[in-house]
């Protein structure tokens, strides 16, 4: 039986499984003016393979797609509707150390958001950050005199 099993394994036709893309959330900035624009973008993205949920926020000009999708393919699909689109360039205001740095503050950003730039984040070697954390209650190696 060993030979027959070996021959059966050689000639067995099994579909090769593709690796699934990882579960991720893709956020895209799209300028939408009316219900028709919103519907067109929503339909284009929700028809993609692997897209599980699609949220469209016209007030923020934001489309959020969650599922087993490729971010570049989602962006390309949104652009195919004729709309100008880019990846979501903003981060919440409270996550940035210096929100009013030259390139971070954007008048077009939705309220509570600033542009995600490297200069808005504090440098890890900043002296003032080290001094603040030196006497912090969360630091287990803080000064024990207090």
From TrEMBL:
The keyword Transmembrane does not apply. The keyword Lipoprotein applies. One of its GO terms (cellular component) is membrane. PROSITE patterns: HMA_2. Residues 23-86 form the HMA domain. InterPro entries: HMA_dom, HMA_dom_sf. Its main location: membrane. One of its GO terms (molecular function) is metal ion binding. It comes from the Eukaryota. Pfam families: HMA. GO terms for biological process: response to stress. It is found in: Membrane. Keywords: Cadmium, Lipoprotein, Membrane, Metal-binding, Methylation, Prenylation. Belongs to the HIPP family. This is HMA domain-containing protein.
